[in-house]
């Protein structure tokens, strides 16, 4: 039996599995399909002597292109039974009761019930309260309200526009827009379901969004390291669309076109201290703190510095690895995740893009062109793309 340094697994149901709490939890079919289609993604942040678990073996052409364009040839393992593989370390996208159960034969430990609160949005709300006290430029109006009943939501949402968020969800899922008017029956049903399953809802004032970004960190042995900025795009419903790929200076310039650099530095310093005190003693690994630049009702540009804390790998962290390892100096682009509703859609888009935007390399890094980061087949419903251009 081969032994790998690390074995990586992509499990996007992480927060859903934590909210459920049952080690036997089975994610919805759509999320299982997402995990299957995007299983190759950890290869882009894996290293030598590592392995990546995939459900379906990629085609030879796809693997050859990984070697040519990305110099990737990670060991791939497949099969439903994870117990047949040995590794020095097991690295899922995120930890949950379900993941500990799937790896139970590896004796890597067990999920502790008290960790659940750490992974929820209430942790981010608590950290935001601290940042409000430490940083005078953070508006208290951004603080979310915890609502435990429909009546609580109706009372808190009067006279404004709000976002109701499930305590445990990710990538823009588990989010509902609410106005000060009466809540429609369909929305009441959704809110009732979240309240029944998760116990409460986080209610935030909807802001005029200017830019979405995150600060990415890594913690190990109680120490927190800043890994970089990530700028990302979201849709109308708040769902994740994609990330900018390119150098850190360009991302900083984009953000400082709206806010002072000093504010970003103050946020980073305050967060490192806060994460060191609150998160690092109980968590090792990558984590991302989502933030937002917005325009308040008075027209002032402000920062919400702690929308979410994601204790796992994030698309922003993946974008950092793509930028550092594979994108040439003087080039930039986007990394995106796309969901398709029917078979054949992804393949048609892929075939067209390959013809229109061929890959160009300079000194073994991409200067321009299109590449699918995950295999695209006839039945693909989720695909990850990298599109690079010269600045």
How would you characterize the overall build of this protein?
The chain has 391 residues and is of the alpha+beta class. The chain contains twelve helices and 17 strands. Strands 13-12-9-10-11-14-17-16-15 form a nine-stranded antiparallel beta sheet, with helices on both faces. The protein has a four-stranded parallel beta sheet with strand order 3-2-1-4, with no helix packed on it. Strands 5-8-6-7 form a four-stranded antiparallel beta sheet. A hairpin with a 2-residue loop joins strand 9 (208-220) and strand 10 (223-234). The longest helix has 18 residues, at 261-278. The relative contact order is 0.13. The model has no long low-confidence stretch (mean pLDDT 93).
């Amino acid at each position: 039996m081969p032994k790998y340094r690390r074995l990586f697994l992509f499990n996007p149901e992480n927060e859903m599995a934590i909210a459920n709490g049952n080690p036997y939890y089975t994610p919805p079919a759509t999320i299982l399909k997402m995990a299957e289609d995007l299983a190759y993604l950890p290869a882009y942040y894996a290293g030598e002597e590592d392995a990546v678990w995939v459900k379906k073996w990629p085609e030879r052409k796809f693997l050859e292109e990984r070697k040519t364009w990305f110099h990737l040839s990670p060991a791939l393992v497949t099969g439903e039974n994870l117990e047949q593989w040995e590794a020095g370390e097991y690295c899922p996208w995120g930890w949950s009761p379900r993941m500990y159960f799937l790896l139970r034969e590896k004796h890597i430990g067990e999920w502790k019930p008290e960790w659940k609160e750490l992974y929820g949005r209430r942790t981010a709300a608590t950290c935001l309260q601290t940042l409000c006290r430490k940083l005078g430029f953070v508006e208290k109006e951004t603080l979310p309200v915890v609502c435990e009943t429909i009546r609580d939501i109706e009372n808190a949402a009067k006279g404004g526009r709000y976002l109701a968020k499930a305590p445990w969800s990710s990538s823009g899922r588990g989010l509902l827009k609410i106005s000060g008017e009466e809540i429609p029956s369909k929305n009441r049903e959704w809110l009732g379901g979240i309240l029944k399953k998760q116990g409460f809802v986080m209610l935030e004032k909807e802001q005029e969004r200017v830019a979405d970004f995150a600060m990415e960190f890594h913690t190990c042995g109680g120490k927190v390291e800043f890994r970089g900025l990530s700028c990302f795009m979201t849709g109308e419903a708040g769902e994740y669309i994609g990330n900018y790929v390119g150098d850190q200076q360009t991302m900083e310039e984009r953000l400082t076109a709206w806010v002072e650099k000093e504010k970003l530095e103050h946020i980073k310093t305050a967060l490192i201290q806060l994460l060191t005190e609150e998160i690092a003693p109980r968590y090792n690994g990558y984590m991302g703190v989502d933030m937002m630049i917005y325009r308040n009702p008075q027209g002032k540009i402000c920062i919400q510095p702690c929308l979410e804390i994601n204790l796992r790998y994030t698309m922003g962290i993946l974008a950092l690895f793509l930028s550092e390892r594979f994108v040439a100096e003087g080039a930039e682009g986007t990394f995106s995740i796309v969901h398709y509703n029917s078979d054949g859609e992804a393949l048609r888009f892929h075939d067209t893009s390959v013809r229109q935007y061929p890959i160009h390399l300079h000194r073994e890094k991409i200067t321009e062109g299109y590449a699918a980061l995950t295999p695209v087949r006839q039945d693909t419903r989720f695909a990850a793309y990298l599109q690079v251009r010269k600045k």
